[in-house]
Design brief:
2,3-Dihydroxybiphenyl 1,2-Dioxygenase, domain 1, about 140 residues, four-stranded mixed beta sheet, alpha/beta, globular
Length: about 140
């Protein structure tokens, strides 16, 4: 009986290599290790469109946005000794929106003005910088 189970396992395992390679489907989360005031950064991301909350237990701000592929999350942490030392002072992320002009207008009402707005063959892009200098881009038609 044990030989049959083992042989079945080998047969199934040999078919695993024929499966498609895994792919990234969405942004699950991104973390910002801020060197500035975490509350200021959290407030900026709340204006940008995240639902931001403070976790008293961990002392960290967390937020999310609603999206078709599920909510990607943001974590705002104090910069610690374990944060990467080189090559990652700033980040740049692009968020696709369903109403470009409406979203840019909403951000302006929140006090966030785009550094620049550029159209190209893929749509329109509005570039923003958070209080730590990280680039956040809005992309839409």
């Amino acid at each position: 009986m044990l030989k049959i189970i083992f042989a079945s396992f080998l047969f199934c395992a040999s078919g695993l290599s024929a499966l498609a390679a895994p792919t990234i489907q969405s942004i699950g989360a991104f973390t910002i290790y801020t060197s500035k005031d975490m509350k200021t950064l959290a407030d900026w991301y709340e204006k940008f469109g995240f639902d931001v909350q403070f976790d008293k237990k961990t002392g960290v701000y967390w937020g999310s946005i609603k999206g078709q592929s599920g909510p990607p999350y943001i974590g705002i942490h104090p910069q610690k000794a374990y944060a990467h030392k080189k090559g990652f002072k700033n980040i740049a992320l692009v968020f696709h929106v369903d109403d470009f002009n409406g979203y840019v207008f909403t951000l302006e009402k929140q006090g966030l003005k785009a550094d620049s707005i550029d159209p190209d063959k893929e749509g329109h892009f509005a570039y923003y910088k958070d209080p730590d200098g990280n680039e956040m881009t809005i992309w839409g038609d």
